[in-house]
Design brief:
60% helix, Endonuclease Iii, domain 2, 2 domains
């Protein structure tokens, strides 16, 4: 079975760490990313920020206009309310930079809050999306049922100074190769992988 250190060594040069982004844009992107493809999230986020640039502008925008702009992300009626209400909070109180304060925003769970900490503020955290949860279990790093359990186990197993790196590697690896239908014939770590359904 592959160790986390072997995983890092094998993929660090290939992927590296996601670049930092504006914390507010990370917040909106991650809210829109729930239950949709990465490409849809990227399109919806670009459409929204092409018209409205700031929390204040989004907070004052008509809900129907937000719905139309973010429609590619799916579940746009629910997500538009989260986006608008979260923007109102940020416009009124400033952009939060702690886990508890982020979790208090409308539509923000642990994954979204941790994404803002990591990719908006460069603070160590482990956001667990579908890629991180699936691959951590597939490679045997953890044996968990829920993203919350995966987060806690990875925090226990990985030194804090490697949280951001490991998260970026897991996400990029999941997007490119180790998806729901893994591309094992192209995988640089296939020989060390013990996944029983390896193709």
């Amino acid at each position: 079975m592959m160790t986390i250190n072997e995983f890092i060594k094998a993929l660090k040069k290939r992927y590296g760490v996601f670049p930092m982004s504006d914390p507010f844009q990370v917040l909106i992107f991650t809210i829109l990313s729930q239950r949709t493809k990465d490409s849809n999230t990227t399109e919806a986020t670009a459409r929204l920020f092409s018209k409205y640039k700031t929390p204040e502008q989004i907070a004052e925008a008509p809900l129907k206009e937000i719905e139309l702009l973010i429609k590619p992300a799916g579940f746009y009626k629910v997500k538009s309310k989260y986006v608008k209400n979260a923007s109102r909070c940020v416009a009124r109180e400033g952009m939060p930079d702690t886990l508890d304060a982020l979790l208090a925003l409308p539509g923000v769970g642990r994954k979204t809050a941790n994404c803002v900490l990591v990719y908006g503020y460069n603070k160590p955290a482990i956001p667990v999306d579908v890629h991180v949860h699936r691959i951590s279990n597939r490679l045997g790093f953890v044996n968990t049922k829920t993203p919350e359990q995966t987060e806690q186990e990875l925090m226990r197993l990985i030194p804090k100074n490697k949280w951001i790196l490991v998260n970026s590697l897991l996400v990029k690896f999941g997007q490119e190769l180790c998806s729901a239908k893994p591309r094992c014939s192209h995988c640089p770590i296939a020989k060390k992988c013990s996944y029983p359904d390896k193709r």
